[in-house]
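Deliverable D4.2, example record:
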Amino acid sequence: MTINDSNFNTVSPEVSQRLRYCSILAMMAVLILHGNTVICNTPNATTWNRFVQELLYINCTNWAVPLFFAISGYLCVFSCQKYKSVLALYKRKGYQLLIPYLLWCIYGTFLLGGY
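Output generated by the structure prediction step:
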């Protein structure tokens, strides 16, 4: 299956800028979400404190990862033009994700002792 459809255009600068802003907001939400695990798991946290933290941090930041996934899929459609086939696209993207993943797993397993 090749992708040579003329309906696919490049992303306009306005859309690119909006996607960048959305990505920045999502990055901040992910940082807040990951930082919450330190705050919420303290032994001194009261029930009210824990409720507010869960409401603000966890429930208000759950949209970040799905937004990254949607932006990634949207941009993947436009990057399909660069490749001759969908298989070539998946092969290239697979290597871009698989190699850092394997290196990080090796680092975590051998250098950090698997913790």
